[in-house]
Amino acid sequence: MSRILIVEDERDIADLEAFHLQRAGFQTLLAETGQEALKHLEGGDIDLIILDLMLPDMDGLEIIKRVRLRERLQRLPIIVVTAKGEEMDRILGLELGADDYVVKPFSPRELVLRVKAVLKRTGSREETGGIIRIDGLTIDEERFQVLINGTPVKLTATEFRLLSTLARARGRVMTREVLLDKVWGYHFEGYARTVDTHIRRLRKKLGPMADYIETVWGVGYRFRE
Fold first, then answer.
1. Which of 72, 120, 190, 222 has its CA at 20 to 30 Å from residue 39's CA atom?
2. What is the pLDDT of residues 169-185, one digit of tens each?
3. In terms of DSSP H, where are the helices of the chain?
């Protein structure tokens, strides 16, 4: 049974999230501050974080930074929760390594769907198992490893799946909607920006191979042949 850490200082919202996640078969832990969240993470055995960015003691973005700096937690899925008007925070959260986001007010059903989709894509090796080699880039889907000219590149699970999906469709244009379906496991109206933010972050990490991910304006993205 997956354990979800809910980091939320508004108790009513935290209890609502926990209730619906437990009904869906998940175990939940609650942290009302950033420091509490970090203590829970030190103990390990957390499968996903639902992180409100507005906490009383610490910026949620700082928590994402600290999590991604720890080797053991680099692939731990993070879903960011933000208010409707905080678009820049959502973008920054994704660029720092969050896997997804939901916007308040949100339906509990949507949150549960997002949690299931993120856990499925970050834990599943379905439709993979091979090694993709393109010039100096190696994508080992069994080991969840990416190398550029023999040097390991650290990617989040979502970034890895995005890169693998594009590379397997090399030469073909993939729309944002198709990428949302294949990588994120859902397609909601208005969430195409999530793809753009992850592509931008992925290009930064790929360094000399960044140009292999081409933007097809008005359509989507393509991995260069």
1. 120
2. 899 999 988 888 888 77
3. 11-23, 34-43, 60-69, 87-96, 108-123, 157-168, 176-179, 192-206
